[in-house]
Design brief:
The protein is about 40% helix and about 20% strand. The protein is an alpha/beta fold and about 240 residues long.
Length: about 240
């Protein structure tokens, strides 16, 4: 029997939006019959905002904050955290202050999560339409990519991964999504592991987990563009 792993934003839900009710209605019966996990950079509070309670309860486990938190059936299984250097935090403030983004910026631009930092020049408290505007601007200006490269050169002890459409995920080396692959293989040494993500390509925030799984035997990585493609692959009609 296979073990299934799903990214959340862009895979099970629209980015930073709740799971669509029709998707949940079709997905839940399948979920109750299979062993499945979530692998996300979000914390458990955001996961609860986006997924219905019955969907959450049906998952075997929820890997949050790039796998630095693991929840199962409402219980905290493990917790890995760190304290970022003062110099790193000062550099993030500098990027925020000196951004060339020509529109409004918002609060919650440095969000500390378990074992990671999520940094967004725009700010996570922005309206959804502003996420789309910043993402379009960033595709042309490459601001996030420039920040990623500069931080990687200054702080080689960290990984800096472009997260979603507006942010950068910051984790200690070895504490990114790739650690989820090791934990799952320890739990399920013989089962096939199938991972679904919308950004499994190099530079995407699912790539580290996809890469770690591809190095293992008896695994499969499924690149999807939206939740409907997940349903089609699982043959849920």
């Amino acid at each position: 029997m296979a073990v299934f792993v799903f990214d959340m934003d862009g895979t099970l839900t629209p980015a930073r939006l709740p799971m669509e009710s029709l998707f949940a209605l079709r997905f839940l019966p399948w979920l109750k019959k299979n062993k499945a996990f979530i692998a996300t950079g979000s914390n458990i509070e955001k996961v609860k905002e986006q997924l219905p309670e019955d969907i959450l309860e049906a998952f075997s486990g929820i890997y949050c904050a790039m796998g630095n938190d693991l929840w199962a059936k409402g219980n905290w299984v493990y917790h890995k955290d760190f304290e970022p250097e003062k110099e790193l935090m000062e550099k993030l403030e500098e990027f925020r202050k000196n951004t060339k983004y020509p529109y409004s910026v918002y609060d919650n631009y440095i969000e500390k999560r378990t074992g990671m930092i999520n940094f967004s020049v725009l700010g996570r408290d922005c309206p959804y339409r502003e996420r789309e505007r910043y993402y379009g601007w960033d595709l042309k200006s490459h601001e996030r990519e420039a920040i990623q490269h500069e931080l990687s050169a200054i702080f080689p002890q960290y990984d800096f991964v472009l997260g979603g459409t507006i942010s950068i995920d910051i984790v200690k080396k070895g504490c990114g999504k790739g650690q989820i692959a090791d934990d799952l293989r320890q739990k399920f040494p013989k089962e096939k592991i199938i991972f679904f993500g919308d950004k499994t390509y190099p530079g995407g925030n699912d790539y580290e987990l996809a890469f770690a799984l591809r190095k293992m035997e008896n695994t499969q990585v499924v690149q999807v563009e939206n939740p409907n493609q997940v349903l089609r692959f699982l043959e849920i009609v």
